[in-house]
Specification:
Distance between the termini: 146 Å
Number of strands: 0
Helix content: over 70%
Radius of gyration: 43 Å
Strand content: under 5%
Largest sheet: none
Order of helices and strands: H
């Protein structure tokens, strides 16, 4: 009889201990899950920031390349106009020399 009551007491104590451990584990799991969710949220925030930053950098590079192309077009156009003016001036000079 003594052994059975001791076994019952032991079983009750071990059940209480197990439930305490399970509660602790559940609490820890909830805490870890909430920390992981918080970290994921921060990670997504920084990933989006990096994505925006890379988009900004690439658009700055694209704008710079486009402005360089526009500058080259303008300078090429200016050279053509200048060459045209020089050619017409030379023709006028030649025409004046032949008439004189």
């Amino acid at each position: 009889m003594l052994n059975q009551s001791a076994l019952k007491l032991f079983a009750q104590n071990s059940q209480q201990t197990n439930s305490k451990h399970e509660d602790t584990y559940r609490g820890t799991k909830k805490f870890v899950t909430s920390v992981q969710a918080s970290q994921l949220s921060s990670l997504y925030y920084y990933i989006n920031r990096l994505r925006l930053l890379t988009d900004l950098i690439s658009s700055i590079g694209a704008n710079k390349r486009e402005s360089e192309r526009a500058s080259k077009r303008e300078s090429k156009q200016a050279r053509k106009q200048h060459a045209g003016k020089c050619a017409s001036a030379t023709q006028h000079q030649l025409a004046n020399q032949t008439t004189n």
